[in-house]
Write a structure and sequence with these properties.
By secondary structure, the chain is mainly alpha-helical. It contains 21 helices and three strands. A three-stranded antiparallel β-sheet has the order 1-2-3. α2 (27-48) runs antiparallel to α20, α7 crosses α8 (214-234) and α15 crosses α16 (381-404). The longest helix is centred in the C-terminal third of the chain and has 29 residues, at 445-473. The chain is globular. The relative contact order is 0.15.
């Protein structure tokens, strides 16, 4: 009898490489494929998460609907809130909307912070009704994002409007992340750069991308800013410079205008990029007219964002616990919560009341640790120092921020830091890609990539399913969501299957072959294909 030979893992890797090579053959194809996958992931989170079941989403729904109707501001209304058992008065903004919007602040109250309680207890969201005054805690935020996200509320109402708002947010984030994917694929040694990007796109980043929350766009824009900044300064290419400047400019405009801290995070990416830049990269950059055009746009946006923030101060009256009485105490408390912040950046869902499986945290932490160790060991001294500085910034930023605003109470969350924190895996991927392409130590990157990104796909799916289970049956319910008390539109099977497929497809481009042709050959090939309708092949411009 003939001997049966099992399929070797190398054959699977070869198949993934062929599929990846097809996907990255042109920029347009890779962008469209990446956009579709990121949209599927963010869209699955949007559909599988109960409405108003993410941090402050009810306030962002109301703000978006109001701005879309031309209400960029409104009267200040003091609203009583009890936080951590302490009574306070929050300064919110009054707006005029259909009466059903007034229900949204109470939509999540019956199950939030009670993981064993499924979301089925939430009242049904209505529609229509007379115009009434509704308050939102997001009234001081820059209106640009809300003007975009609130458009569906002008043509429909009720749950349909809210889901469409989420979909628009997912479209914005998917476009930014797809541009970052194309930027990573342009490195001469693609696999390390794309692995860094996939590590940066944590389940929390994808979850927030599907919510109506400026944090989602802020994180996606941060990923694009870091990707374009590092590629431009670390792997300079005259043929790609204008494209990278455009991506950096678009990401920067979103980052600066979407939340008050955006300008600080952009500056952090710029400083680190200059620290690790390759000799000779700055001179041609400074000679480009496009640089100064984008600088004017970003400068104007920065001034506008600062003026908006200054003209909309927070007059909330926060009653602090007796023990929370000084900046030193605030810093110490925030430092003690460092691991919680890190876990929140990887995956922590709902109103920070829904943790994923331990698998998700372990896999992502191991992936980040592996990239960091390889960077410190294989990178130049300046590269290793820069990675250490970014890691220190991730740990020290929350204590410093809490100390500076301790009068607001312990309000810091991991997502606030993510536009800067995504820089660590992206920086490590960039350093390793550059060292590999420039004749550094030869590493089995196909095997290393598979070792990192395939577990990421599994951990990503586990986070999604575990969160959907929590909302459907509660943490003490059936493991397989049987007899679910709450179901997303279309049922849980559809969205779980879509997420599983998208999570696997997301990591496929990381298996693409490297093309390290000579620069002169690359320039000739780039000119030869410049007029192609679907853009030049990525292999030609490496």
């Amino acid at each position: 009898m003939a001997e049966l030979h099992p399929v070797r893992p190398s054959r699977l890797a070869a198949g993934l490489t062929r599929l990846a090579d097809w996907a990255v053959r042109t920029r347009r194809r890779l962008w469209l494929c990446s956009f579709a996958v990121f949209l599927a992931l963010a869209g699955a989170w949007a559909a599988a998460t109960p409405l108003a079941a993410s941090p402050d989403e009810h306030a962002h729904f109301i703000r978006a609907a109001a701005v879309a109707r031309g209400q960029f501001g409104g009267p200040e209304v003091m609203v009583e809130h009890t936080v951590a058992g302490v009574d306070s008065e929050f300064a919110e903004t009054g707006v005029r909307l259909p009466g059903w919007y007034a229900q949204l602040p109470h939509e999540h109250e019956c199950y939030s912070w009670q993981p064993a309680v499924p979301a089925s207890c939430a009242p049904k969201i209505g529609s229509g009704g007379p115009t009434v005054q509704v308050t939102t805690a997001a009234g001081r935020y820059h209106p640009a994002y809300y003007l975009y996200a609130g458009l569906p509320s002008l043509v429909t109402d009720g749950p349909t409007a809210l889901y469409l708002m989420r979909l628009l947010s997912a479209v914005l984030c998917a476009a930014l992340l797809a541009s970052a994917m194309v930027t990573a694929a342009e490195w001469r040694s693609r696999r390390p750069a794309m692995t860094g990007l996939l590590v940066a796109a944590t389940p929390t980043a994808l979850f927030l991308a599907g919510m109506v929350n400026p944090s989602g766009g802020e994180i996606a824009a941060g990923i694009l800013v870091w990707s374009a900044m590092l590629a431009m300064l670390r792997s300079p290419d005259p043929l790609l410079l204008n494209r990278r400047l455009a991506r950096l400019g678009i990401g920067g405009l979103v980052l600066i205008n979407i939340r008050p801290l955006g300008l600080l995070w952009f500056a952090g990416a710029a400083v680190v990029g200059l620290l690790v830049h390759r000799r000779g990269a700055l001179r041609p950059l400074l000679r480009r007219k496009a640089l100064w055009g984008w600088t004017v746009l970003l400068g104007t946006a920065s001034v506008g964002a600062l003026l908006w923030s200054r003209s909309h101060p927070d007059h909330s009256v926060i009653t602090l616990p007796p023990w929370y009485n000084s900046p030193a105490v605030a810093a110490k408390d925030a430092f003690g919560n460092s691991m919680d912040y890190i876990h929140q950046m990887i995956g922590w869902f709902g109103w920070l009341d829904t943790k994923p499986t331990v698998l998700t945290w372990v896999v992502w932490t191991a992936a980040i640790g592996l990239l960091a160790v390889l960077t410190v060991v294989l990178g130049r001294r300046r590269d290793a120092l820069s990675a250490v500085l970014v890691a220190l910034g991730i740990v020290l930023a929350p204590p410093l921020a809490q100390a500076a605003q301790y009068h607001l109470g312990p309000v810091w969350q991991g997502r606030y830091l993510m536009p800067f924190a995504v820089g660590l895996p992206l920086l490590c991927g960039a350093v390793l890609a550059d060292r590999t392409a420039s004749g550094g130590p030869a590493l089995p990157w196909r095997r290393l990539t598979a070792t990192v990104v395939l577990p990421l796909a599994l951990a990503n799916l586990a986070a999604f399913y575990w969160t959907l289970r929590r909302f459907g049956v509660g943490t003490s319910g059936s493991l397989f969501n049987r007899h679910a008390h709450w179901l997303p539109p279309g049922g849980w099977v559809v969205w779980t299957a879509l997420y599983a497929l998208a999570a696997l497809l997301l990591v496929v481009p990381a298996f693409a072959s490297d093309h390290a042709g000579t620069p002169s050959a690359g320039r000739r090939a780039g000119r030869r294909h410049r007029l192609r309708a679907d853009g030049p092949p990525l292999a030609a411009v490496d």
